[in-house]
C-alpha cells in the first residue's frame, strides 16, 4: 500500500508540474474530453480480462513543439462488473501536421463494485500515436501494466477519441 500511495503522489506531482510549467512560461492550457475503450489481456496466460469503455477529462500543456497531457478518467467493464479510476500522463510529439507519437504512463485502480478493500492497482508504460483532425483526435495506444498489489502483467491495447476545447 505504501508503493501505491507513493505512486499517486508522483502522478499528482506530474500533473502539478505541467500546470506550473504552463504558468511559468505563459503558455495557454487547453482542455479536452475523451471517450474510448481498452482491451485488457493477461500476459501470463493470454486470458481476456475485460473490455473497458471509459470517459476522461484532459489538460494539454504545450512544451516547445511537444505537448504534455494529463488526464483523469473512469473506466468500466460491463462484462466483469469491474471499474476504476485512471490518471494518465502523456507526452505527444508531432512528427507531421496530422500525426504525433506518444509516450505515456498510467496508474490504474480496478475493483469489483464497491469492494474498495479488494481494489487492484497497476502501473503502466507504453507507446501510442495521435491523428489530429482539427479539434478532434484519434489515438491508438499499447500499454503494458504491472500489478502493484497483485502478481500480474497485462497488455492493454486501446483507442481514444478526444475533443479539445
Topology diagram in text:
Blueprint: H1 2-24, E1 30-42, E2 48-63, E3 66-77, E4 82-96, E5 99-112, E6 120-133, E7 136-147, E8 153-164
Antiparallel strand pairs: 1-2, 1-8, 2-3, 3-4, 4-5, 5-6, 6-7, 7-8
Characterise the protein shown here.
The structure is a single chain. This protein has 165 residues and is mainly β. The protein contains 1 helix and 8 strands, in the order H-E-E-E-E-E-E-E-E. Strands 1-2-3-4-5-6-7-8 form an 8-stranded antiparallel barrel. A hairpin with a 2-residue loop joins strand 6 and strand 7. The longest helix has 23 residues. It is globular, with a radius of gyration of 16 Å.
Straight-line distance between termini: 37 Å
Biggest β-sheet description: 8 strands, antiparallel, barrel
Provide a count of the helices: 1
Number of strands: 8
Overall form: globular
State the helicity in percent bands.
10-25%
Over the alpha carbons, how many angstroms does the gyration radius reach?
16 Å
Strand content: over 45%
Mean of the pLDDT scores?
Answer: 90
- The low-pLDDT segments are none
Order of helices and strands: HEEEEEEEE
What structural class should be given to the helix and strand makeup?
Answer: mainly beta
Instruction: Report strand order across the widest sheet.
Output: 1-2-3-4-5-6-7-8
Brief write-up:
By secondary structure, the chain is mostly beta strands. Helices cover 14% and strands 65% of the residues.
